[in-house]
Design a protein that fits this description.
465 residues; alpha/beta; six-stranded parallel sheet; two-stranded antiparallel sheet; 17 helices; 10 strands; 58% helix; binds NADP nicotinamide-adenine-dinucleotide phosphate
Length: 465
């Protein structure tokens, strides 16, 4: 009776989770969605404690643990800056992976406490589910720790390419498969920890090669993995709430990753398998050679700029052509309201007349205090998360520093490449006034936003709404 009643209540909490996901799909309903999620989770915890927990003697210990977690969670939620959300989410994903591994270890060492058999004779199916959960959970843990370190700039956000990484990953996969088989056949504690160790390094080697601009995809993918890890452990423990919640998180995270991959022109399969770095093949303009550029959408750009701490906008001739200055000021105001620091960098020869950019920005009521000349702002690009280049080209071209044969050699340029991410908004890979290619389009930290400057900024504004 109580088992059926618990299952019924779990179904209600699962329905609340589905309502939560529905609400969170739009900012206007997100509060309502969040509320449903809180009620659903509260209900699931209560059912587990009151109806499912076999041994009440541990109730105090569990409540104590819950209390510590709740206090820490509430403190973090109150203090965290919105711009630090991506790294916070990555850190929380690591905890989900970690707890999946810890619960599995507890179930392995004391199976009778979880009702999955006696020590040394856990049901084979439960062992298999546990092995899968441990593998994905550990990978989620180590991958999320690396993602957190990158997003929080504790290690370089640039891709860290390990030698022979594809071969190494294949070896990891093969070894993990073998250890899962041995664990299922023997239930050995030693093999369990070997599997944990291998999965740990596999998770790291998957996330290290990913560059800063792709991190949003990584975070949503790790979100998906954490859900599958929870579902795996849910099967082991025959806990319906864990299975449903894990599957919801896993599938919604996978759908989100797919949508983001499409927006960034990434191959979903290569991201899921950690084969990252799939690029768009676009012929370079000058000599017909095939070069790679990263292409982003308005949604991608909105995500990147609103999660930045500091954005420097570099306007150029294309902004004037498109008359995008008003939409640009609106965009700047929106992200400023989110706490992002915004500055405008003006190159002396930007546009087609002296002071061209200053006039346009003044017309759009951009505050003079936010506008800086080249010599005053150039040293600041290295401290900016994003350089947002709108219709400018020659004034950013590093050939001016590196190529003595270039027509613009010697011209001081805005050193946008020093920013964490460079967003280049223009219609194509066309050259600027000087007629020369810009090497920056093909750099690892560049994302091209192809389109008319005004239309693209208006789309970004919609995405920011
Ligand atoms: P730029 O190098 O001429 O580049 C402008 C870029 O804007 C182009 O590459 C073009 O690329 C893009 N664009 C054009 N229409 C667009 C639209 N509707 N939407 C989005 N992008 C658009 O401009 P800059 O960086 O401002 O540099 C100025 C250049 O002009 C310098 O070489 C300078 O020496 C020269 N110049 C300046 C003056 C002056 O007094 N300021 C006078 C004469 C010459 P896509 O085709 O791919 O979109």
């Amino acid at each position: 009776m109580s088992v059926n009643f618990a299952a019924f209540l779990y179904l209600i909490s699962a329905s609340l989770f589905i309502l939560a996901l529905r609400g969170l799909s739009h900012p206007s309903t997100s509060r309502h969605g969040n509320f449903c999620g809180i009620i659903g989770m509260g209900l699931a915890v209560l059912i587990t404690l009151l109806l499912v927990l076999p041994d009440f003697s541990r109730l105090v210990l569990i409540l104590f643990g819950l209390g510590i977690g709740a206090v820490i969670g509430a403190l973090i939620a109150k203090r965290i800056a919105m711009t630090a959300m991506p790294q916070l989410i990555a850190a929380f994903h690591s905890l989900i992976g970690f707890s999946a591994v810890m619960v599995s270890a507890a179930a392995l060492y004391s199976p009778s406490s979880f009702g999955i058999g006696a020590l040394g004779s856990i049901h084979t199916l439960a062992l298999f589910e546990m092995a899968i959960g441990v593998w994905i959970g550990t990978m989620t843990f180590s991958g999320s720790v690396v993602a957190f370190l990158k997003l929080d700039e504790r290690i370089s956000g640039k891709p860290i390419i390990l030698a022979y990484r594809h071969f190494m990953n294949m070896c990891f996969c093969a070894a993990i498969a073998i250890f899962i088989m041995i664990l299922v056949m023997t239930g050995s504690h030693f093999v369990f920890w070997c599997l944990v160790l291998l999965s740990f390094f596999f998770g790291m080697s998957m996330i290290l090669p990913i560059g800063g601009a792709d991190m949003p995809v990584v975070v949503s993918m790790l979100n998906s993995y954490s859900g599958w890890a929870a579902a795996g452990i849910g099967f082991t423990l025959a806990n319906m709430a864990l299975i449903i919640t894990g599957a919801l998180v896993g599938s919604s995270g996978a759908i989100l990753s797919y949508i983001m991959c499409k927006g960034m022109n990434r191959s979903f399969i290569s991201v899921i398998l950690g084969g990252f770095g799939s690029e768009t093949l676009i012929p370079s303009t000058s000599n017909g050679k095939q070069r790679f550029v990263k292409k982003g959408s308005a949604d991608d750009a909105a995500f990147v700029i609103k999660n930045a701490s500091k954005v420097i906008i570099v306007p150029g001739y294309g902004m004037a052509v498109a008359q995008a200055q008003h939409a640009l000021r609106e965009m700047a105001n929106k992200i400023k309201n989110e706490g992002v620091e915004v500055k405008y960098a003006i190159h002396p020869v930007a546009g087609r007349m002296p002071g061209h950019m200053n006039v346009l920005l003044a017309e759009a009521n951009v505050s003079y205090e936010d506008v800086f000349e080249l010599e005053d702002i150039n040293s600041e690009f290295s401290t900016a998360d994003v350089a947002f280049i709108i219709g400018a080209n020659d004034v950013t071209n590093p050939a001016a520093k590196t190529d003595p044969s270039s027509p613009i050699y010697g011209m001081p340029i805005l050193e946008v490449e020093k920013a964490g991410t460079v967003l280049f908004l223009k219609r194509g890979l066309g050259s600027g006034y000087s007629g020369i290619d810009n090497e920056l389009f093909f750099r690892e930290n560049t994302m091209m936003l192809f389109g008319d400057a005004k239309k693209m900024v208006e789309s970004i504004n919609k995405s920011l709404a």
